[in-house]
Amino acid sequence: STVDDVVLDLARALAPAFGLAVGDAAARARTIDPLHLVERAASQRNPNGRKRLDWIIERIDARAESVVESVSRAVTEWCGFPRPTLQMEHRVGGRLYRSDFCWPDHSVIGEADGWTKYDPSDARIAAEAVRNEKIREDALRRAGWRVARWDYSGALRVDGMREALTRAGLPTVSRPNTAALRSVGVNRRSR
After folding, report:
1. What are phi and psi of 118, to 5 degrees?
2. Would the pLDDT of 81 be above 90?
3. Other residues' Cβ atoms within 10 Å of the Cβ of residue 68
4. Is the pTM value of this prediction over 0.85?
5. With 90 as the cut, is the pLDDT of residue 186 above it?
6. If you write DSSP's letter for every residue of 146-176 in order, what string do you get?
7. What is the C-alpha to C-alpha distance for residues 103 and 109, in angstroms, rounded to an integer?
């Protein structure tokens, strides 16, 4: 399909973390089937960017709810942290909460903060969102979870996200991929 071709072309052309974000968004919108994408990529004769394309296709996940979550997932892997469980549900005090990233074996939750839920045009709605987030995080901490938070710029700069996860006690399980980490926050097309 045309959407498959666009996803594959962008995966070849963009920095890998952003190619992953495109693939995740297409899977989330149900405009692609990752299994069909593997077949479509195999049928293409273009060898350019094949290694990057394979890396992205293997990791496409419709559970990533935003660009910051997709980029964060790539950064997590490249920093050498274990692979997270996405959108895990936690029942705490009779309430059900969901985390962006979770490492149950290490009692660590990761939250990639987007700012759209904090509506700056309505102070009351923004304050309520902040209050609800605080109540949620406090409940998770009381249940024994360590919570690491970062925003989009923290993921793009890598260090903010890496420091948050390290402070929360998440160990690394492999050596960092410094070449891949250098690609985060770099858009060759905008130079």
Report:
1. -105, 80
2. yes
3. 23
4. yes
5. no
6. EEEEEEHHHHHSSHHHHHHHHHTTPPP-S--
7. 6
